[in-house]
Design a protein that fits this description.
With 372 residues, the chain is mostly beta strands.
Length: 372
């Protein structure tokens, strides 16, 4: 009996010795939010040119998701290996002299148990004696941020967007926001890119692009804000001219039953307060529930009328029609043309059933903060 027990025990030890080592299926970390507990690159370190970077987490991580969310900028080639909770990164090309680099993880990374990080991580170091502390922050207006990055190019003449790698590449957060840290005073072109094949390059036939309104100019270590709209967003139809005299319309006999059911006679009118001295200004009203989009021209006296709208909640966007063609042009990559200047109005507008809105005030408080 003892002999059989010894044989059975030996067999179990052999089997367990051959098993793959995986993260524990329970216990530690199940309800723990993943965070970086240590990084070999200390934030703000100068005159530093590491060959390797180690990032240690508080939990066993979903390794493939971590790598998808890892960014080193300016862009540089690297290889990596995992050891338990630690990611070991080996830089496989030389770092540029007198350059600030950032190592970052977007807030999308998760651990082995499916817990999502609450905030992004980044650490900066410089190969010279100065840390560049400028930043570009912003948002890409898209409902689905899967595979969305921002590609940032230091401005120069004749950038080949289909063949030149971006100088900086950062993953867009789940809510569309992004941060490009550790920049120096310079001019930059920031694109939103849905990188379908994840090759770090723009494929014109596959990738969705968001072209900026302006070339972003950073001075005095400032922070700039960039808003981007992808080119697959559908433009509204050109605005319908509103009759100057609506007295006759008001005296028509209208079937109130039909009015309640269809809401076709609702309108939104009011005034825009801004400092843009141009006549080519428009508002776009978008109701997502019924995919309704209407456009209204802002008159010289800053008044507007958006007629024939349905009840519902509307997002509002203001834009300047730079080429005076009556529609919102989102720009092109080849040939490169900037998106027309626009602002998203932060608060949506609720239009209740049977109730039009008059005297609605829209304020454009922030000026367009860059110049072409």
């Amino acid at each position: 009996m003892k002999k059989n027990s010894i044989v059975l025990l030996s067999f179990c030890l052999i089997i367990s010795g051959c098993a793959n080592i995986v993260a524990p299926s329970g216990g530690e970390g199940i309800k723990t939010i993943p965070v970086v507990v240590n990084c070999s690159v200390k934030d703000g370190e100068i005159n530093y040119a590491p060959k390797d970077i180690k990032i240690e987490f508080n939990s066993y991580m979903n390794r493939s998701v971590v790598i998808e969310n890892l960014q080193i900028a300016p862009t540089i080639k690297y290889s990596f290996k995992w050891k338990a909770k630690t990611l070991n990164i080996t830089l496989t090309e030389e770092l540029k002299p007198n350059t600030t680099y950032s190592v970052s993880l977007s807030g999308k990374y998760v651990d082995h148990y499916g817990n999502i990080a609450e905030s992004p991580f980044y650490s900066c170091f410089s190969t010279g004696d100065i840390i560049d502390s400028c930043k570009i922050e912003g948002i890409v207006y898209t409902a689905n941020t899967t595979n969305y990055y921002v590609f940032c190019y230091i401005h120069r003449e004749n950038i080949d967007y289909l063949n030149d790698k971006p100088d900086y590449k950062m993953l867009v957060g789940a809510n569309g926001t992004f941060v490009i840290p550790a920049l120096k005073d310079d001019k930059y072109i920031v694109l939103g890119v849905k990188d379908v094949d994840k090759d770090g390059m723009i494929t014109n036939a596959k990738d969705t692009i968001a072209v900026p309104q302006f070339i972003t100019k950073i001075t005095d270590c400032s922070t700039k804000y960039v808003e981007l709209i992808p080119n697959d967003v559908i433009n509204p139809p050109p605005p319908i001219e509103t009759p100057a005299d609506t007295t006759e319309l008001d005296t028509l006999e209208i079937d109130t039953t039909e009015l309640i059911d269809t809401n076709i006679y609702l309108h939104i009118s009011g005034k825009v307060i801004d400092t843009n001295f141009t006549n080519n200004r428009y508002l776009i009203f978008t109701q997502k529930e019924k995919k309704l989009t209407k456009q209204a021209k802002i008159n010289e006296d800053n008044t507007f009328l958006c007629d024939s709208v349905l009840a519902g909640e509307y997002e509002i966007m203001y834009f300047i029609d730079a080429n005076d063609n009556g529609i919102f042009d989102k720009g092109t990559l080849v040939p490169f043309e900037l998106c027309e200047p626009f602002k998203k109005i932060p608060q949506p507008l609720k239009l209740n059933n049977r109730w039009s809105i008059d005297n609605y005030i829209i304020e454009i408080n922030e000026p367009f903060n860059d110049t072409p």
